[in-house]
Amino acid sequence: MKKFLSIVNKTTLTRILFIEITAGLIFNVAFLLLFIFLTQDVLEKEVLFYDQAISSAIYSFRTPLLTTVMSTITNLTDIPAGIILSLLMVLLLIRKHKKEALIFSLSPMIGGILNYILKIIFHLPRPNISPLEALNDFTYPSGHAMNNLVLYGLLAFYTFHFTKNKPLSILSMFIAVIWICLIGFSRIYLGVHYFSDVMAGYLVGFWWLITVLLVDKTISLSKEVKRLHE
Questions:
Q1: pLDDT (tens digit, 9 = 90+) per residue, 189-230?
Q2: Buried (b) or exposed (e) across 141-162, using 16+ Cβ within 10 A?
Q3: What share of the chain is helix, strand, coil (3-state, %, to 5)?
């Protein structure tokens, strides 16, 4: 009886993993296509008018206090993100979650490299409409938007994965969404990115985040299939 229940549980888990991977692939392709479509419009300057209009509208809200707040938010994405990443890796290693620690360490790093490569490929200049920061590198897609979405998306995902606490998971997801949106808004407010840059960063970030999770789920599925046939 115990052997039968074990087989049933393994089969159920295998089906769940298969469904999750299938759904993930659908979203993965969808985000990639959206990024491609947006990139075509950006390269053909079809969204430039809307980018400039959105930037001008946001600039109209500039005040000394709000500028300080936005500068603080955009600057908090570097050192604090590194501290959070380091603490999470230590915590995961202490609890012997080596795979998850590896994912946390490599995903943002590879995502940063991917963002750099994309910026070199598209070679698009920064906005030149009243920027509050002087940056000389390329603008598309936004690295702040992409990298922070990957980092805090993983944080929200693993909060649910390890705790199974629905209220805590919802809270972590809500905080992650608000923070990621504030980072994107701050980049437009400071005049260092267009709206399309930020949206492209989010799209590539979602694509990369789902890709990482898909690889993880696929490895888990292959292990479960192997166990099922033992």
A1: 999 999 999 999 999 999 999 999 888 877 776 766 666 555
A2: bbbbbbbbbbbbbbbbbbbeee
A3: 80, 0, 20
